[in-house]
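From the pipeline queue, job 12 of 40. The input is one protein chain; the requested action is below.

Action: predict structure.
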Amino acid sequence: MKEKQPSKKRTWLIACAVLLFCGGIYFTTTNAFTFIKGYAMYKIDKPEAAAETKPQKSLPASKPEKKEEVLYPERPKTGEMMGELYIPKLEKSLSIYHGTDENELEKGVGHYAQSVLPGERDNSVLSGHRDTVFRRLGEVGKGDLLIARTEAGTFTYKVRKVRIVDADDRTVIVPKPKATLTVTTCYPFSFIGHAPERYVLVADLLTSEMK
């Protein structure tokens, strides 16, 4: 019997396979493979490179911080009269002296020298004797006004809190995050001798009228 001859289709497939095999060997052993690989990487990286080189929208420039206004170019000297404290509830105006030594407290209300001046941000502390300038301070309480008048202007405060503390309590002079006026005197008001406590008014700044 005669053996069957391979069909033309089968012969064509074998020939194609041999050509592809030979072409693959040639492709991988010459510069053609390197060239095509490099071109493909270039096409992939091009969109990212374009995105990087694309001009970005400039951000709006930040506004410079506003400097806090200087109310007092020079601080008062110790013992110097620096203003007055007006208490509407008592219809009384009291002189304020810089310092809280006995020399200042004998003349009027003393301003604690290590605290800020009235109108400035932080805690401004005033003290006075209960048997002289602050004889009626116990009548002043929460919601009442305290008005400090100085060379910088008129500063109106509203009492937010009334405190009774020990005589050696130092919390009355601690810094505050906003403009505060702390007014303190000995307590009880009718006590004979060195009073063991302090009557404290803590007031927040309401308005400022600059000169």
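Job complete. The mean pLDDT is 82.
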